[in-house]
Design brief:
The protein has helices spanning about 15-20, 30-40, 45-50, 60-70, 75-95, 110-120, 135-165, 185-195, 210-220, 250, 255-260; strands at about 1-5, 55-60, 100-105, 125-130. It has eleven helices and four strands. Helix 2 packs across helix 7. Strand 3 (about 100-105), helix 6 and strand 4 (about 125-130) form a beta-alpha-beta unit. The longest helix has 29 residues, at about 135-165. By secondary structure, the chain is mainly alpha-helical. It is about 40% helix and about 10% strand.
């Protein structure tokens, strides 16, 4: 997942982004148009390059899953997303940018999210709203930066995945043409998941195991079923240490000889 930030002078907010370059909700813009906008943002000499700044924060599938599935307390996706957004804003402040207004597409309840941000950034006017990427051009621009970065990362990642297939003997006869965007509604994504699922291990680090789509596939009839024994707290044989320690009395060997059952005793004479 990729989160984006975009900043520019307040007077240029709508005139430059909406009126001149037609930024809009990134989901309604075609991939080609998003790429054109991103190219303009990154090309020296353009008005977008001269007047604006942007940043993204990439969260890998492995990092998200390990945080969501950790045994000592789940770090849910909303909390991870909020922290990524806060880190992005702090990084812009650290560069000396004079931020007066912040607009954010909400994660969860807008009011609660806005209050949290206002406590962290008390000197800034903050607006958190649903569908902010269709209401505020700067959020639209941030969303474009995030989506183009995501698409580029997926493309580079898939190139590396294809290289690994050269040594894999279990490659499907007709591999899916790419792994898509990562959305379950994307036919390429769902096809890739089905064609590349190991019945026991699932997928590699490129896939998020805390995702409902992958959980459903792993629980399907094509996946191996594993039943883990439930440990009885009163059953001493279930303790891990019981596999590594034993009493000399139980071994049938004299206590003095038990330590020499494997190899020979090392004494000072050796040294």
């Amino acid at each position: 997942m990729v989160y984006g930030l975009y900043y520019l002078p307040v007077p240029l907010h709508r005139s430059l982004l909406a009126d001149t370059h037609h930024f809009d909700d990134s989901k309604v813009l075609t991939p080609a148009f998003r790429s054109e906008l991103m190219q303009s943002i990154c090309t020296p000499g353009t008005d977008l390059y001269q007047s604006c700044g942007w940043a993204t924060r990439v969260m890998s599938a492995r990092d998200i899953s390990s945080a969501q599935l950790r045994p000592n307390g789940m770090y849910n996706l909303n909390a991870q997303a909020m922290d990524a957004t806060i880190d992005l804003i702090k990084a812009v402040f650290a560069q000396g940018v004079n931020i007066t207004d912040i607009y954010i597409d909400t994660i969860g309840q807008p009011a609660a999210y806005q209050k949290k941000l206002e406590r962290i950034f008390p000197t800034v006017s903050i607006t958190v709203a649903k569908k902010a990427d269709s209401l505020y051009p700067c959020v639209s621009a941030a969303s474009v930066c995030a989506k183009v970065t995501r698409d580029a990362a997926l493309e580079v990642g898939y190139d590396a995945f294809k290289l690994s297939l050269a040594t894999n003997e279990t490659v499907p006869e007709q591999p899916a043409p790419g792994w898509g965007s990562g959305y379950p509604s994307d036919a390429r994504c769902s096809t890739w998941l089905k064609q590349n699922m190991d019945p026991l291990f699932g997928w590699g680090t490129e896939c998020r195991f805390s995702w409902a789509t992958t959980k459903d596939l792993l629980e399907s009839k094509n996946a191996a079923k594993v039943t883990w024994p439930v440990a009885d707290p009163e059953d001493e044989s279930m303790k891990l240490t019981s596999f590594f320690m034993s009493d000399a009395e139980d071994s049938g060997l004299p206590e003095d000889d038990f330590c020499m059952w494997y190899g020979r005793r090392v004494t000072q004479d050796v040294f």
